[in-house]
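Chapter review: from sequence to fold.
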Amino acid sequence: MNTIFIAGHARLPSGMAAQNMYETLTITAEIDRKYGVIVAASCTLATEHGRDFVQHLLRGYSLQDGCEEPIHAIREHYMGKAGNAIISAVRDLYKQYNLYLEKKKGSS
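The token string follows.
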């Protein structure tokens, strides 16, 4: 298999539909091992449309280039109440990706 599965988490703001179901927002991503490209992504937003929109925003970005480009895309295109939580979850996803790289490097 040429991909890995990583999750990033962030606290949701109060008063959101998703916050009634979950305390945190989770973004999961299938990431290409060689290039760090997000092949597929999902999140725990309440609506299918919101989840699909986040998938569309994140797909294709390489985490080898950092997380600022996908964060910029979120700021530019996502105007929902969970925007800051999504950004925090992407930052955590990036952090988890880097921990994976360090672990992989250490075991080589």
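Two observations follow directly from the output. The mean pLDDT is 91. The beta strands are 3-11, 24-32, 38-43.
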